[in-house]
From TrEMBL:
<feature type="domain" description="AMP-dependent synthetase/ligase">
    <location>
        <begin position="10"/>
        <end position="369"/>
    </location>
</feature>
<comment type="similarity">
    <text>Belongs to the ATP-dependent AMP-binding enzyme family.</text>
</comment>
<dbReference type="InterPro" id="IPR000873">
    <property type="entry name" value="AMP-dep_synth/lig_dom"/>
</dbReference>
<dbReference type="InterPro" id="IPR025110">
    <property type="entry name" value="AMP-bd_C"/>
</dbReference>
<feature type="domain" description="AMP-binding enzyme C-terminal">
    <location>
        <begin position="419"/>
        <end position="493"/>
    </location>
</feature>
<dbReference type="Pfam" id="PF13193">
    <property type="entry name" value="AMP-binding_C"/>
</dbReference>
<protein>
    <submittedName>
        <fullName>AMP-binding protein</fullName>
    </submittedName>
</protein>
<dbReference type="Pfam" id="PF00501">
    <property type="entry name" value="AMP-binding"/>
</dbReference>
<keyword id="KW-0436">Ligase</keyword>
<dbReference type="InterPro" id="IPR042099">
    <property type="entry name" value="ANL_N_sf"/>
</dbReference>
<dbReference type="InterPro" id="IPR045851">
    <property type="entry name" value="AMP-bd_C_sf"/>
</dbReference>
Amino acid sequence: MFDLGTSFMASAARDPDALAIVDGDVRLTYAHWLDKISSLVSAFDGMGLKAGDHLVTVLQNRWEAASLHWACQFAGLTITPINWRAKPDEIDFVLENCDAKAIAFEAVASQSMTESQRAVAIPRIAVGADAGRAELTFAEMIAVAAPVAKPRVAADALSLMLYTSGTTAKPKGVPRRHRAERMAGLAHVAQNLYGRGERTLGVMPLYHTMGVRSLIAMSLIGGVFVCLPRFDVTRALELIEAEGISNLYLVPTLYHDVVHHPRFAQTNVSSVRKLGFAGAPMTDGLLGQLTDAFSPELFVNHYGSSEIYTFTINQKAAEKPGSAGKAGLNQLIRVVKLGAKSAHEIAAPGEEGEIVALAASDEAFEGYWKRPEADAKSLRDGWYFTGDTGYFDADGDLYVSGRVDDMIITGGENVSPVEIESCLSLHPGVLEVAVVGLPDERWGKVVVAFVQRKGAVTAEELDAHCKATGLANFKRPRRFEFVKAIPKSPVGKLLRRQLVAGEFEPESSGSAAA
């Protein structure tokens, strides 16, 4: 298989004059972008960086970040992107953990860089104006023309290391090889039915697997990656219309914000023909709203992870709400009994259990970075234990019900928060909702719904809605908390743990019991 450097070189040879990347006033064809990337590779040599070294980046979704990503593929460096909001101690952890040889950052991260104890000990690359003190700037690196870069590593070399978000422990490094990254990109093209010259909104962070997948997928088809450095609904709508965006690949939260924005109705979004989402389940209510708003030709629910990119695909997400579909092109999926020690303890159809994926997938990683205890927990019998709960229906389609850790056990019954959230999302008075289990002396845990209201709705009305839709009595929330906002991560994932910890801002009217 091609390494990613060769892959990009082939794309530039095939479509040299095709537009490749857009970022404000920057508009580069594949040929011109390859020139910039080649200059970066030459600059890496001048810094003394060698194949196998880690380059950490603390950047938003700008063309410089995408260029550094591709330059690393040519040079054989392992690009290690982290959240641009990272705190000094978080930067220090990553720098030490991966033994980074250099770091690139921009102004938004300059304060954390200044306070980082380890960043000062390695070469720093400042990206953009006012980034702060550094040994080298990105502008200096691309200012010197260089011969067209030649790929230096094979497909088995490491391409990328992402860090999973830590909750109670330090984040885990997920190293991925060129062949796995390219195969995941190819599968992404096939499963989303992308055609030549597609245009995507590059807003999912390049420190997140969804952002990286969009970047690679566009390169494979001579497509355009339109940068949106950080999510802003108004700017996103402007770019969709101005750049003729043809596909969107976002987490549900961002779709929610787009379709509910006051300017959405005045924006021409007719160029968008394909929708895809991942990262979290999408409520039935939002599925319906997006279908009405975009009338897409294809609406894909992609279920996967940083470790093994694709688990399952549902290409008709709106027709079977909640279904994650069937195994992707490079995958085999099972559901095993909750608490199973082996991948051979298979759950019956309709029985909720833990979802496991075959670790031999062409898209898969091979183990966490320096974390043997995490490998022992997640990799068993040649299968990857996802930590997600779900079940197969009578048609063999997978439904993802939540996380093993999020399962609410109330009065001895297992309750999935996702099912309750989908039910409540269909009420017109609900803007967003999150469900958790909170400690209770009698029941162990009780089901509590945190609701951001769209209209004047009461706890009693929401409880009546749950009854009317047939939600089982033991699944109905015993309490409703009305909040100003549902807490989410930087990439839009719901942070249930903050709700459990009481880290939320209530509405002035407070809470109500059902």
